[in-house]
Amino acid sequence: MSRQPRRELRLNSFQMAAPSHNWAGLWKHPRDNQAQYNQLRYWADMARTAERGLLDGIFIADVFGIYDVYAGSADAALAAGAQSPQLDPTMLISAMALVTEHIGFGVTSSLSNDHPFSFARRFSTLDHLTNGRLGWNIVTGYLESGARGLGRDSLRDHDERYDVAEDFMAAIYQLWEGSWEAGAAVRDKNSGVFSHPERVHAVAHDGPYYRVHGRALAEPSLQRTPLLYQAGSSARGQQFAGRHAEACFINGPTPAAAAKSVKALRASAQHAGRDPYDLLTLLGATVIVAPTKAEAQDLRDEYRHYLDSAGQLALVSGWTGMDLSQLDLDDVLPFAKTNAIQSTVEHLTRNTPQPPKVRDLLDFSPVGARAPVFIGPPVDVADQMAHWVAESDIDGFNLVRTVMPESLGAIVDLLIPELQNRGMFKTRYEEGTLREKLFPAGGRLLPASHPGAAYRR
């Protein structure tokens, strides 16, 4: 595998349309405004701040279902506001796009709960309305509660969910790439022809899980296929990512664990006939930055006071599929094969220097975050980020929110200038779509080496 020249650092603000994201309970902090997650102004203000800092994107996580593995009940998650209640993140994008010009928007949406025909129109719409700044995080879902809510007896097995995903992608590539020819929509007022019917082709897909027969309802957006993100780090997830993903979100409590995931993902892309460095890898990271080390540590201690232990364990129970209410705080977290997020189980039990105890999940630590926690003044945080990049070959970070809006404001006003002074981060946006911004040497459409491009007429 050839090593490519280092790209500039990629940074996303990692968000969720819920009162709490990865750190349950911080909405209680007196300076926090996450309880306003259901107001458009909250998202518009966030987008303006993130774009002021030249961040590459606002990435909005989503989960379809409620966290009810802990103690067999959703009570802890609901009481703590732990990713519940939640909104549909796709509904937020237009408002943020209206008040910004460059920043991208990554949206998690589970294909298990949708159909390619309707999904293609919805995401084409968002790519139109953002002028090509949309990305889709392809997920298959991991909560049994979501499956039950849809009237199913249970969630499909982990690996079969990726078989479903492959069929979904085969159908949706045809809709996005192959149904409408370039130039089919002409908007010719003189002739009265808006679209040439002979250039709009019906899709005929009969797969093992999905059937699609008909023309795509939306004309092609600037990117046709939105930029494709993916977050699965299991063996099956890495295989899927190697074929489809343009950027992957990973976690890892140590640089060695992250490097293992990055190496496997790049090898999977190469095996699929792609350039391994055409797949960006973005590591989750919690950042608490302040002008001095003492101030940053004081912030950590202050934030720690508002963490909700039961809500945090409800989240981890949902991610791992293990009911942590059955363990004492001083019990070592066991490994178990579950139908939830297999990579999370691996990282928490096998990819740490020593097996963590349950109480270790309740603090701002690499175990609690399942990823690095950078605390300190801008110089120290930038040093830590540079170390992880060098050791693990990642391309950037998903910056997990803590207390809002001050955590994002500190990143923009303190950390970004330090990274720019080191030449690690851009000083202006590239022009064009999200794909063109992240891959300046490429174009706005899927590259020819991507399997989705094979469906283009």
Describe the structure.
With 457 residues, the protein is an alpha/beta fold. It has one domain: TIM Barrel. Helices cover 36% and strands 15% of the residues. The chain is built from 15 helices and 13 strands. It has helices at 40-52, 75-80, 93-98, 116-129, 144-149, 158-178, 235-244, 255-271, 293-304, 309-320, 342-349, 366-369, 378-392, 406-421, 434-438, and strands at residues 10-16, 57-61, 104-110, 134-139, 185-188, 193-195, 203-206, 211-214, 227-230, 247-250, 280-289, 373-376, 396-400. The strands form three sheets. An eight-stranded parallel barrel has the order 1-2-3-4-9-10-11-13, surrounded by seven helices. The chain has a two-stranded antiparallel ribbon with strand order 5-6. A hairpin with a 4-residue loop joins strand 5 (185-188) and strand 6 (193-195). Helix 8 packs across helix 13 (378-392). The protein is globular. It starts with 9 loop residues before the first strand and ends in a 19-residue tail after the last helix. The mean pLDDT is 93.
List the helices and strands and how they pair.
Layout: E1 10-16, H1 40-52, E2 57-61, H2 75-80, H3 93-98, E3 104-110, H4 116-129, E4 134-139, H5 144-149, H6 158-178, E5 185-188, E6 193-195, E7 203-206, E8 211-214, E9 227-230, H7 235-244, E10 247-250, H8 255-271, E11 280-289, H9 293-304, H10 309-320, H11 342-349, H12 366-369, E12 373-376, H13 378-392, E13 396-400, H14 406-421, H15 434-438
Parallel strand pairs: 1-2, 1-13, 2-3, 3-4, 4-9, 9-10, 10-11, 11-12, 11-13
Antiparallel strand pairs: 5-6, 7-8
